[in-house]
Design a protein that fits this description.
Helix content is about 40%, strand content about 15%.
């Protein structure tokens, strides 16, 4: 399962995970699975075919804009119930520090490996593209059987 913090304003408007065109999530997935995407439906199909769950730690919050630093009054999703419903889950990958921080705070009973990776958000430009890709590929290699 890959957990983000909260979708961006654009993602919420489009009703698409990682819908902002400069977010690097789908670019990384495309490179990892050697797939070019022409539609959101193709992205969803790829995720489903590879038994990946995409979700966010936050169900609702107050936030001006899309930055995690602006998040206030958080209500988290019930990730624990999801984990209990899907006993074949192998690991949690947190897309960025905010999702990891909230996951650690609200999901302590989940007995799965948890990896925090640098955020794929356009706002995170502290890490070069190739290093971001390398870290994501390394984590995905641990839990994805076939590419």
């Amino acid at each position: 399962m890959i957990l983000g913090s909260m979708p961006s304003v654009v993602s919420l408007q489009k009703q698409e995970y990682y819908g902002f065109k400069h977010n690097r999530f789908w670019k990384i997935m495309g490179h990892y699975f050697q797939k070019e995407f022409y539609s959101y439906e193709e992205k969803v199909t790829l995720i489903k075919q590879n038994h990946i769950i995409l979700w966010d730690v936050i169900q609702t919050c107050e936030r001006e804009g899309s930055l995690d630093a602006q998040i206030k009054k958080v209500k988290c999703n019930d990730i624990v119930s999801l984990w209990k419903r899907y006993p074949t889950l192998k690991a949690i990958i947190c897309n960025g520090k905010k999702s990891y921080e909230l996951y650690q705070k609200h999901c302590q009973e989940i007995a799965l490996p948890c990896i925090v990776l640098p955020s794929t958000s356009n706002a995170n430009r502290t890490i070069k593209e190739e290093e971001l890709k390398r870290q994501w590929f390394s984590a995905l290699d641990q839990y994805i059987k076939e590419k």
